[in-house]
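[job 4471] stage=fold_predict status=RUNNING
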Amino acid sequence: MKTYRVPMVPGPTSVSREVLEAGAVDFASADLEQEYVELYVARGEALGEVVQTKHDVVIQTGEGMLALWGAMKSSLRAGDRVLVLSTGLFGSGMADMARAIGCEARTVEYGYDETLKNFGRIEEAIREFRPKMITMVQNETPSGTMNPVAEVGELKVKYRVPLLYVDAVSGIGGSDVRTDEWHVDFCLGGSQKCLSAPASMSFLAVSEEAWGIVEEVGYAGYDALLPFRTAVRDAYFPYTPYWQGTAQLYKACRLLLEEGLEHVVARHERVAAYCRERVREMGLRLYPAEGAVASPTVTAVYVPEGMAWKELDARLRQEGVAMGGNYGCLAGKVFRIGHMGTQANLNRVKEALDVLEVAVRR
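[job 4471] inference complete, writing structure tokens
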């Protein structure tokens, strides 16, 4: 398998040796050992610090989409109303997810190069539609944008919307995420983005109000949340836990907390600002529109005019640098530089951008 000297894709990110080694140990059977329960609890407390919540943090074996589906299917029934706030590919995809389980979904659509604004428009939609759940993406990796959550949380409380569901997969560990302060009921994350652990674990903070709805719905399935409500108390998990992945995720959290969350967020913001400035100096055009909030974890850039993404990608990879292409309507038009987690390193980003500068001017 080909490896790259400077990987700058927006996830899965480079995994540090310390995190890799945390899982390189033979454990006993996780579903029979009290030691695993203690590790699960410690990991939950660490993740709780990272996402700033005092509520339960559930960890599941599987990539981040597992948590996104699990939270929806565990709290919604066919016919429930879901208000989708969309500023990108992942945001709009939530309407498809809701409809797939029989819900009525209405989308408040913004441009993919925009971030949430004009909250009166959102407020009007909440008043008219009366949703059971509001969904949004905090950090849209395809678009390189970051949405404000606090204002949506205030509207959720004002109109007594039962559930606020926030995909923060590519923001957790690289930006300020205030789950409880923002009134988020499901704060959804994955191991492979800013936490820089292998793409094997998903997790989510679950409010007490959300647990009550989960118990009422009673969904059963591999992605169900309900069995995790009593997993620690009963020392019984719904399927064989992935001890190594849990240990790696815990180590990744500890590394962030030891650095200090404020320092981690500042590091991401500093690297992102440098990246955007260098991109402009090269004469390239950033994708987010003027006035949109640029992401601190990924920079989205228009592919240079007169050059195909395939050609640019090949030039970069020839020099040992890997950046990210894109999906859907942005495929071939916008590429992405992932400066998150271990990749939020000024020297690494400088090295990658030096290569990019040569590649676009050849």
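[job 4471] summary: The chain is about 40% helix and 15% strand.
[job 4471] exit 0
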